[in-house]
Amino acid sequence: MAMYLQRLRYGSNNVTHFDALRWATSGSARAMGRTDIGELAVGKQADVAMFKLDDIRFSGSHDPLAALLLCGAQQADRVMVAGQWRVHDGAVMGVDMPQLIERHKAAALRLRQKALSM
């Protein structure tokens, strides 16, 4: 979203997907005054998200980073947080997704009923 907003102001030729990657990684770390995050390097926090690009929406892109940012990458195939795998084959590890969905539906229903009774 930040990239699109900046493109509106400064033009798409002046704001690239490489700028957005920098803002999201080293730029964000610098803004927070952190030296232990913001890049993949020895001794730094190991958070990584991996995406498959074999879906039709990515087929017209010749740049994998641009495809991720501009073509609607919505779900990571694999995610590592603090050196531990948390998502594998698109599924959150250790989460009973059907049970979580049912709990979410029940909570949403309670909120809706509460709002209607006000």
Automatic annotation (TrEMBL):
Pfam families: Amidohydro_1 (PF01979). InterPro entries: Amidohydro-rel (IPR006680), Metal-dep_hydrolase_composite (IPR011059), MTA/SAH_deaminase (IPR050287). Its EC number is 3.5.4.3, 3.5.4.43. GO terms for molecular function: guanine deaminase activity; hydroxydechloroatrazine ethylaminohydrolase activity. Coiled coil: none annotated. Residues 5-84 form the Amidohydrolase-related domain. Keywords: Hydrolase. It is an enzyme of class 3 (hydrolase). Belongs to the metallo-dependent hydrolases superfamily. ATZ/TRZ family. PANTHER family: AMIDOHYDROLASE-RELATED DOMAIN-CONTAINING PROTEIN, AMINOHYDROLASE SSNA-RELATED. This is Guanine deaminase.
